[in-house]
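Subject: sequence -> structure tokens, single chain

Hey, anyone have a minute? Need the predicted structure for the following. Not urgent.
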Amino acid sequence: MTEKLSLTQLQLIIKDSLYLSLPDFYWVIAEIAEIKENSAGHCYLELIEKQTDEKNIRSRAKAIIWSSRYRFLKSFFENITGETLREGFKILVKIKIEYHEIYGLSLVIFDIDPAFTIGEMAVKRQLIIKKLEEEGVFTMNKELDFPVVPQRIAIISSKNAAGFTDFINHLTKNSFGYIFYTVLFETVMQGIDTEASVINALDKIASRLNLFDVVVLIRGGGSQTDLSWFDNYNIAYHITQFPLPVITGIGHEKDLSVADMVAYQSLKTPTAVADYLIDCMNNAENHLNEMRLEIIDKSRIIVDGNRNRIETWRMKLIPVARIMISDIKEHLSEMKIEMINFGKERIVRAGLAPANLKARLVSASRALIESTYSAFNQKRQSLISLTVNSVDRNSLKIDTLENSLKILNPENVLSRGYTITSLKGKIIKSSKLVKENDIIKTLFVDGSVSSRVTEKEEEKG
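Reply:
Had a minute. Here:
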């Protein structure tokens, strides 16, 4: 074919060919990979088909439900399935193929079979349960030992959820006055982020296990759609592996999610979970009271039995004790006589020993006093001699120093004809300290004179 075509002409040929080849409606099975509603009310989807490994995509196509049809199909699907159309759902839809010159190939959805989706959800749910059973983990959390006093509670919930508020109020205002310690690990409880958020909360609790006794997973009531977020393998698997008992109260009366099935205990509502914990505390208290009463009864039996035994032995011991007391008295009397005789003998011996010791002590004392007195006299004479010599030496030194002082006394120096010259109260020892016109004072032995310096001569060399 040599005819040149414009792009639009080619697109129209493709469009006509598709309409001629595929003029009918087709029922197609696909999985929703993406779904969006625009402001005009149209619903745009991206449909895929996965490989058998459920990971790789085998085919992909765009689809649309026009607003006039979408309002009906959405309401119809939700009423039948209890779910909203969302990513991950497998659906059976009646489509017609359309081709647009700008937007390309798309599938226009005219009808949807909700029964197929319900079947797929049930199959998916059963596959999750079967996988957990085959892995041998389905009942692992149920097999844990439940604490006798579940007082420290880790809560996985949204803080804005009505169910969380109901749970806290019911737990803290219990009629028994029990005190519970609670910590909220805030979590997304619906939507595509539910899985990651719940698992993250479990991981945080696992990092501080010693602070908690049990974990509660709660949210308020909701539609069947909300329940389906907990038909999740990863959430269920994490619950089975968790080392603390997990109690769920997701808020559905009709069905149990997979998370409910694998938890240690599943209850319908958050308030039911609170009641369960309160009952556990009450059971523990009642058990303690029963044990207390049982201990009291057994203690009384033991005390009464021992009291009878003691009375029996008392009656048996009285005559034996009397005989033993009589024997002891006789023995003590004999010992008393022996001690008196022994004491007399020791006193006699003791009387001789002090006299000997006294004589020896007097003799030794006299000898010690005489030798001490002799040594004292020698020391005294030696001290007197040393003192006299020291006084003589020091007197001689004092006389010598006194003579030197007399010679150096300024009065004696002046009486020999010497004078002392001063300037402003300071003695002049050098001509360099005096200037012309300075008033100097000359001190004689019998007085002083003041002079003005008119001329100054200095020695050279």
